[in-house]
Amino acid sequence: DADVTQTPRNRITKTGKRIMLECSQTKGHDRMYWYRQDPGLGLRLIYYSFDVKDINKGEISDGYSVSRQAQAKFSLSLESAIPNQTALYFCATSHPGTSGVDTQYFGPGTRLTVL
Amino acid sequence: QKEVEQNSGPLSVPEGAIASLNCTYSDRVSQSFFWYRQYSGKSPELIMSIYSNGDKEDGRFTAQLNKASQYVSLLIRDSQPSDSATYLCASGFQKLVFGTGTRLLVSP
Hints:
The complex is a heterodimer of chains A (115) and B (108). Chain A is mostly beta strands and 115 residues long. Chain A is built from no helices and eleven strands.
């Protein structure tokens, strides 16, 4: 079984709809992240969480919200989807090593299309 | 604004050649650097990490870091068609900043 799972893997929705993307991990990592990837723009950080009670905005948080339901679960919501939120969304997890440096591991991604 | 810059490519090399991928970063306090490989439509996969100046080798891959020049590179020896992918460079400590990636094409 995959260590980091994302559901759904593909989603097509309409402008104005509420959408939730879910991420679960069995790696036992405390830190979780949500990114979006657009052609030519690379990976951009939306939100991140270093533990269950910690939520932080990333580079492009406007229009998104998150919920950290448990150590293993981190959900991303689009309250009112718009077409420019069409992108590939990745969840990632990490845990600080002995040197304090994190290595991030990515889920398989969710392809979201907003019509 | 912390930035990581990569040439978008494509970088084309013949099978068996050495592929050299380069990356520069703007944040002088960055402590750790990563190379990820990403096949089209798939998730990034960690290839190498490097934290100290110099070279780090792992199989066919060698990462090179020069903090004075704010420069990181990835060398792939004996390139194979299966190495054809986009390579993402990232820097940071707890939060990573990613470059837009270099597309590598290895022709048989």
